[in-house]
Q: What sequence folds into this?
DNA sequence: TATTGTTATACTCTATAACTATA
DNA sequence: TATAGTTATAGAGTATAACAATA
């Protein structure tokens, strides 16, 4: 009564896809750690720089980093001491301090992004324009959130 | 003289793919941190459990975790204190100690894998068997290493 | 009352260097 | 000599709880 012989193959494909993705995750993490180390940044510090594409209040930065806000105080202290970020008081709420990148922080962030994204650019070069279109469509369908 | 009008579109697709992958990486990292926290494990401890699908010498575990071997001593000490791993002397080299999961460690590892992999399983359900085949083929082509 | 950011505390991670015991 | 693992040390991350300033 096996009307759908592709069911098993499908499950295998899904497992294989997950294996490929896990390898991508590992590789991405290693690239990130290496890039951070080359800049003499602790992973948490590098992660903060990547989040700061726009100024963020301390507590929002804590939320993005998935850690307690008390940790962000020292983290931003040390990034400030290295001249990579500044704390600016918020105009609308005097409790809030906006953390933003200095020019040096922007340069460090750009270097991180360039190094972490390098293998992805190589990978894309292995695909034709049509294949890239297909891949994007499939990834979007697989990851699309059901926001109706 | 623009003979290839798809060049620009291709670059856009590649950027979009990279954006989707970055979102996947962030989500995966957050899932991992959450799953580790629910087990009262430090991220480094959870990472060690995930690497220990097979027994590993201390220095190999250090290599997989991309950290100095001196750190692994304390890491394994604490995992041992919690009954999640054991250190067994190697039969072939008396300098080496094999780190391996206890039954409790295997349960913790299984829980981590289940929680971290959950969104990937949901994503695969959004694709047909044929689409999964296509996605796997594209990912493999994009990530294949030129080992000739 | 609730929220933002800080401080205090305790534990863990991390890199470096020096040490031992093996190879 | 080189390698595996440990120890010592110093700096950084992390969670929790308590606090002052502001909303």
A:
């Amino acid at each position: 009564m096996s009307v759908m012989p592709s069911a098993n193959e499908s499950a295998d494909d899904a497992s294989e896809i997950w294996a490929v993705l896990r390898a991508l995750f590992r590789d991405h993490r290693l690239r990130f750690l290496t890039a951070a180390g080359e800049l003499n940044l602790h992973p948490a510090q590098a992660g903060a720089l990547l989040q700061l594409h726009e100024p963020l209040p301390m507590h929002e930065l804590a939320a993005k980093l998935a850690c307690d806000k008390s940790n962000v105080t020292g983290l931003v202290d040390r990034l400030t001491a290295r001249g990579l970020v500044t704390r600016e008081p918020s105009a609308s709420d005097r409790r809030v301090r906006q953390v933003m990148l200095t020019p040096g922080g922007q340069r460090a962030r750009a270097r991180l992004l360039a190094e972490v994204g390098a293998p992805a650019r190589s990978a894309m070069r292995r695909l034709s324009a049509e294949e890239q279109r297909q891949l994007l469509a499939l990834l979007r369908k697989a990851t699309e959130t059901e926001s109706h």
